[in-house]
Amino acid sequence: MARLVVLGGGVSGHTAATFAAKWLGSSHEVVVVTPNSKWNWIPSNIWVGVGQMGKEDVTFDLAPVYAKAGINYKQAKAVSINPEGNERSDKPFVTIEYTLAGREGEVENIEYDYLINATGPKLNFGATPGLGDANGLGEFTVSVCTADHAVHANEEFQKCIQKMKKGERQKFLIGTGHGLCTCQGAAFEYIFNIEHELNKAGVRDMADLKWISNESFLGDFGVGGLHMKSMGFAVSSKIFAESLFTERNVDWIIGAHVNKVEKGKVHYELLDGSMNEEEFDFSMLIPPFAGVGLKAYAKDGSDITATLFAPNGFLKVDANYAAGAYENWKASDWPKTYQNPTYGNIFACGIAFAPPHPISKPMSSPNGTPINPTPPRTGMPSGIIGKAVAHSICDRILKGESSPLHEASMANMGAACVASAGKGLFDGTAAAMTIYPVVPDFEKYPGTGRDTDYTFGEIGLAGHWIKHILHHLFIWKAKLKTGWTMIPE
Amino acid sequence: MEKKAEHNIKAYGNNFTTMTPGPLAIKLRTCKIWQFIRFIIINIKMLIVVRKSH
Ligand SMILES: Cc1cc2nc3c(=O)[nH]c(=O)nc-3n(C[C@H](O)[C@H](O)[C@H](O)COP(=O)(O)OP(=O)(O)OC[C@H]3O[C@@H](n4cnc5c(N)ncnc54)[C@H](O)[C@@H]3O)c2cc1C
């Protein structure tokens, strides 16, 4: 009997574990180690953050789902990996620390034959003074990155609405909280959902909305922007984004590295090197992401974290980490199998794998401060990669060690993204987009780097309907209800 | 007079060079019949990209 251990039960790890359990059957074991008792459909946290959904609408208990799937579920966080075993045994293992109520802090070693690291991001609030610290989110801004954060964000948002109703003007500042953030899409959704709710509450004229982000142009989204076919033109996402911001009367600051947050004020540096300040009454700033900080030890106990992980804490995989300057970047730098080059039985999926480099062009201010988006790994690629990795491992367990690995390169893969711009059955809107491929391939698609026959976007009520249907569809799939395998990632 | 999207443009400000939708384009965004048609078309386009990516 082989044992597959999956670290992280989020979008990517849950996909990998549930498919592996289905394909392997009861003759092999799948273990999931994840610190939360609940699964969270993170994209819908945006709606929790404006009071349009509750925490219970976007989360569900993992234990019954894993029991049904025959998965051995450990509510714990992984702390370290011993890929060569230790002095007493050659068998590789992970050390975990329980978070389960009643067993908090208890440590256990779990041996594995195959390991998937799907631990997603550490929300690195501590990278910007005042945005937070090692314990997480600070007191001056809010976040929608977890369901609990989003509940808190809505409480603060409702207070602002009450103030506006009493005639007090409010300033909203939404965007990214550091020069090296990703996930601009989430902040984009939040600012337009706020704008939509302010209209509904009849207080839009009492509010000033401002966007602040590390993108060098509006609509970069960490993927270097995209060109979409529209009215016979290939139009940059910059045009569409600027158009939407203007239509909804949202001002913007771009190319910004937020370097300090205080009560009611952010300090930031721009790509031109200037230092500036912006005041706010309510602010949601996405933190930068890092790996969750797993350690790795060799058989003799020496620290080999740097062998397994990149300096940002993400797991090294089959990517080209030596591509160098932007001019040398190629689509082929991006990983295909997500296998660790040193230990062939360790894989990563979702945000946990170390990308070879950003997708957007790297930039820095004259003071040497890097200010550019880091690469996003959104839901669809995270799910597809999780499934491909599970497929590779199941083949190796069931068909033999030499089975070829499955490939899922982000340079050969598209993504469908639906960015909410306001919730409502008949007055909601969302930008529905597809991008193909996620990582531009300028050799294959000269000029834009993307196939404009498969890269499109439009905003409207239809997009909102799709977003709402996807909310229910993905929760249905994650709960492993009838037909779950038919729903694509 | 209803405020048009173009009224939000500030001369020589951030948004001076962008395009803004007219009343028809904005109306169509929430027109149920038009959006039902778009819903079908967008779903087909997305499914094609999803198929190509798996
Ligand atoms: C507010 C917001 C809105 C978003 N909206 C969209 C959207 O509309 N569309 C879209 O495609 N994407 C969206 N995304 C991105 C999407 O959520 C991510 O792409 C996706 O969650 C990545 O999956 P993952 O499995 O890599 O990470 P996660 O889903 O974050 O899962 C990581 C898991 O690992 C666990 N973990 C952490 N540390 C450890 C440890 N030490 N040991 C074991 N487990 C650990 C975590 O608890 C978590 O369960 C959004 C993200 C945010 C923050």
Layout of strands and helices, then pairs:
The complex is a heterodimer of chains A (489) and B (54).
Chain A: E1 3-7, H1 11-24, E2 29-34, E3 38-40, H2 45-48, H3 55-58, E4 59-61, H4 62-69, E5 72-82, E6 93-98, E7 107-111, E8 114-117, E9 122-123, E10 132-133, E11 136-137, H5 147-165, E12 170-176, H6 184-200, E13 207-212, E14 227-230, E15 233-236, H7 237-247, E16 250-253, E17 256-262, E18 265-270, E19 275-279, E20 282-286, E21 289-290, E22 295-296, H8 305-308, E23 346-348, H9 379-399, E24 415-420, E25 430-435, E26 456-460, H10 461-478
Parallel strand pairs in A: 1-2, 1-8, 2-5, 5-22, 8-23, 12-13, 12-20, 13-16
Antiparallel strand pairs in A: 3-4, 5-6, 6-7, 9-21, 10-11, 14-15, 17-18, 18-19, 24-25, 25-26
Chain B: H1 23-29, H2 32-53
The complex binds flavin-adenine dinucleotide.
Give the N-to-C terminal Cα separation of chain B.
Answer: 51 Å
CATH level 1 name of the domain at 3-123 and 290-410 in chain A: Alpha Beta
What bound compounds does this protein have? Answer: flavin-adenine dinucleotide
Q: Helical residue percent of chain A? A: 10-25%
Query: What's the pLDDT, averaged over the residues of chain B?
Result: 93
Sheet with the most strands, sense and barrel status of chain B: none
Number of helices of chain A: 10
Number of helices of chain B: 2
Ends distance of chain A: 29 Å
